[in-house]
Amino acid sequence: MTLTLSTAGESHGPALVAIVGGLPAGLVLDRDAIDADLARRQQGYGRSPRQQLEQDTVEVLAGLRHGRTLGTPLALVVRNLDHKNWTWGMDPWPPEGEPSGKGSKPVTLPRPGHADLAGSLKYGLRDARDALERASARQTAVAVAAGAVAKALLASIEIAVESRVVTEELEARIDEARADRDTVGGVVEVVARGVPPGLGSYASKDERLDARLAAALMGIQAVKGVELGAGFELAGRRGSEAHDEILRREDGTLYRDTNFAGGIEGGVSNGEPLIARAAMKPLPTLMRPLRSVDLETGEPGEALVERSDVAAVEALAVVAEAAVAFELARAAREKFGGDSLDDFVGAWRAYVERIPWRMP
Ligand code: EPS
Questions:
Q1: Which alpha helices (DSSP H) does the chain contain, by range?
Q2: What does the pLDDT profile of the chain (360 residues) look like in tens digits?
Q3: Residue 315 CA: which ligand 1 atom is closest?
Q4: Which of 42, 51, 212, 298 has the fewest CB neighbours in a 10 Å radius?
Q5: Pocket around ligand 1: residues whose beta carbon is below 6 Å from it?
């Protein structure tokens, strides 16, 4: 038993959709909790005016009855309210009438750092919009909705996931960048508490929890670096300063008083809080554009300028939290299985009662 996530949707198309497979039956979902995460993702300093146009809320089309999962695929939808300004430009069908509104002129000046150039070359496009619409981080809205569902599942086995921005003086950096018509990135941290030992496996690289978390985080738009625990810093330390000694409480349970490993050893959770960080590059749409080449004429030019964020680091924290939650929920489904929530929770309880561990 595992969890699956399929998504579709363009930034200015009608909607974003996600299908979550592999949920147990009987999980209670709270629409307000999902919408609260969607709202958190939209907040944050330095976001685009686009966020004033959108008020992301989740719609459920399948897999839920009276607020409880059916154990069948859960279909989630987040509408793009801005689509009304792109009805010609992003019509899924051949549009009627003369080109009008946003998206009606082809994008031929690719932005360094976005998928515009690579996507145009890869798919043989004459309008880079065909690439950038899907590459856009708008997609993260529906991933956050799926992450909120994963968090509900994790809560049933007492795992809580939270996030924060690690970058210092972010607001000041954003103000300076905005004044210079530039953009900035930053670092976010996700911490999961209550993760029992034994999620993931050293048996093969695609089962390693650290590899899976790294892939989940690196799969978020604009993420260029990921580290777990002390990460890159460990490379410069001695072994005696890099590993978390194993200690025993009076009640017989085991614990560590450091957590350099970030809660994962050998690709398996070790019972300590799971700590992951992701580094976001500065966003590629600059109001003072970088040099580019017009793909239609071959002439040098300046990259596409369109409405965008100065920074989306606070949004990344929420998106990274969702990505880590989904991956942990997937690992928990693999370990504890069960068609119903009761079976899932029952397997978890029997396991944590058997091992010498309690939540740190
Ligand atoms: C994005 C460009 C901007 C961001 C968008 C991601 O979109 P627009 O051009 O419509 O202003 O606002 O992010 C979102 C819409 C969102 O909801 O996070 C990009 O190119 O990646």
A1: 31-42, 50-53, 116-123, 129-135, 140-155, 170-179, 209-218, 313-336, 341-354
A2: 899 999 999 999 999 999 999 999 999 999 999 999 999 999 999 999 999 999 999 999 999 999 999 999 999 999 999 999 999 999 999 999 999 999 999 999 999 999 999 999 999 999 999 999 999 999 999 999 999 999 999 999 999 999 999 989 999 999 999 999 999 999 999 999 999 999 999 999 999 999 999 999 999 999 999 999 999 999 999 999 999 999 999 999 999 999 999 999 999 999 999 999 999 999 999 999 999 999 999 999 999 998 889 999 999 999 999 999 999 999 999 999 999 999 999 999 999 999 999 987
A3: 18
A4: 298
A5: 11, 48, 50, 54, 136-138, 140-141, 221, 285, 306-309, 315
pTM above 0.90, yes or no: yes
C-alpha to C-alpha distance for 18 and 5, rounded to whole angstroms: 7
Tokens of 46: 């330095």
Tokens, residue 217: 């985080």
Compute the distance between CA of residue 61 and CA of residue 19 in angstroms, rounded to an integer. Answer: 10
The CA distances from residue 89 to 79, 99, 107, 185, in Å, are 17, 7, 12, 30
